[in-house]
Amino acid sequence: MFANLSDRITASFKQVRGKGRLSEADIDATVSEIRRALLEADVALPVVRQFTANVRQQAKEAVASQALNPGQQLIKIVNDELVEILGGAARDLHLAKNPPTVIMLAGLQGAGKTTLAGKLGRWLREQGHTPLLVASDLQRPNAVNQLQIVGERAGVPVWAPEPGNGVGDPVQVARTGLAHAQDKQYSAVVVDTAGRLGVDTEMMQQAIDIRDAVDPHEILFVLDAMIGQDAVHTAEAFRDGVGFTGVVLSKLDGDARGGAALSVATVTGQPVLFASTGEKVTDFERFHADRMASRILDMGDVLTLIEQAERAFDADEAEELAGKLAGDGDFTLQDFLAQLQQLRKMGSMKKMLGMLPGMGQMREQLESFDEREVDRVEAIVRSMTPAERTNPKILNGSRRQRIARGSGTTVTEINALMDRFDKAKTMMRQMARNGGPGGMGGVPG
Ligand code: GDP
């Protein structure tokens, strides 16, 4: 998402980056270019207007005050203003003084609510909550079943209507779900609700009725970032209908222009709290305006990367690995396999690489990154015996042939992997000695 926007804005900086002095004409040219890029990305017009007016004014002030490195200054101004339209500093979820905290999800059908319920449930669990998901979407034929599946994946129980338990009445399901949560002392309740393909009064009334029945601490409006211009209109309809306290942007992994989603915080005055970036229950993160701005300006999002690493990594295991790397070099292929599996828990390799600074310029290589390459590496190591994994020196020609057959690869691939493994091992040892990121270092592949 935002690849095009990102390219255009970073390109517009090229002309000013190295300049010792900026003229008003330089500023006007850059701001116009950014303005066009934002409009083309579907950012709402009033938001674009506000953005460009603010940037232009601040940039001119910076030039007038003869600030050092005005090009860099301009980038900072654009960054800060981008953070502003994305809703500024992140806030935490509103939690109930007396649990359970009730979180209601609202949005159009297909926005990603049910998927989000699972992601949010898992996230809440990680935060130390005991969440319950409540299936109040009885509109879509398969929604209850789908929620049960995502609940299972997330390891979070689901309250669903049973015969005699309010079948067909979503308000009743929400009410009994909440009562159950109170009774069993769940600390958080996530209520999934029905959406239609377009905003309609009946659907909005149902959301309002559910809201009034469970009195939520947060109503999260789930917005499909791929729906383009309609996003703003839909957000306004929900704001004026059931109302909401925060936004979740879903499908941010798509390659649509996505700019409308960038406008939603400014247009509705409610912050974006979370981002959904894929179909898996782990494709989910807190939304931080400053990090999103950094990503758009291709300055990378290392903080999110580190957080995901922290979530996926088992601290003890990571420490043990770092110790091995720094120590007498007994880092084996067995350890490598363990490390690879931990990395994979963080989600797609491609997505992780995309968060590194400067990756915008390498987008083509990134696009051609083949996730299956990692599968092949894993298959190779799995086809080795424990002895081979601890002591790769014994890998002679016939062993390599056997491994190639077992893993469905070729001897050439195995040779290449072993070569890279040796190199990576040396590199990681150096990083670990220098107090580098330890267990996270260089994956051969
Ligand atoms: P609901 O009708 O609002 O409950 O929407 P669903 O949760 O059923 O999602 C609709 C479709 O979008 C499903 O196929 C999901 O797998 C998919 N989906 C949801 N969130 C994301 C996301 O962040 N990225 C992508 N690529 N797909 C998503």
TrEMBL record:
Its EC number is 3.6.5.4. Keywords: Cytoplasm, GTP-binding, Hydrolase, Nucleotide-binding, Ribonucleoprotein, RNA-binding, Signal recognition particle. It comes from the Bacteria. The keyword Transferase does not apply. Residues 271-284 form the SRP54-type proteins GTP-binding domain. It is an enzyme of class 3 (hydrolase). It is found in: Cytoplasm. GTP binds at residues 107-114, 192-196, 250-253. It catalyses: GTP + H2O = GDP + phosphate + H(+). The keyword Membrane does not apply. Belongs to the GTP-binding SRP family. SRP54 subfamily. Involved in targeting and insertion of nascent membrane proteins into the cytoplasmic membrane. Binds to the hydrophobic signal sequence of the ribosome-nascent chain (RNC) as it emerges from the ribosomes. The SRP-RNC complex is then targeted to the cytoplasmic membrane where it interacts with the SRP receptor FtsY. Composed of three domains: the N-terminal N domain, which is responsible for interactions with the ribosome, the central G domain, which binds GTP, and the C-terminal M domain, which binds the RNA and the signal sequence of the RNC. Part of the signal recognition particle protein translocation system, which is composed of SRP and FtsY. This is Signal recognition particle protein. It comes from Georgenia halotolerans. The lineage of its organism: Bacteria, Bacillati, Actinomycetota, Actinomycetes, Micrococcales. The chain holds residues 1 to 445 of 527 of the full protein.
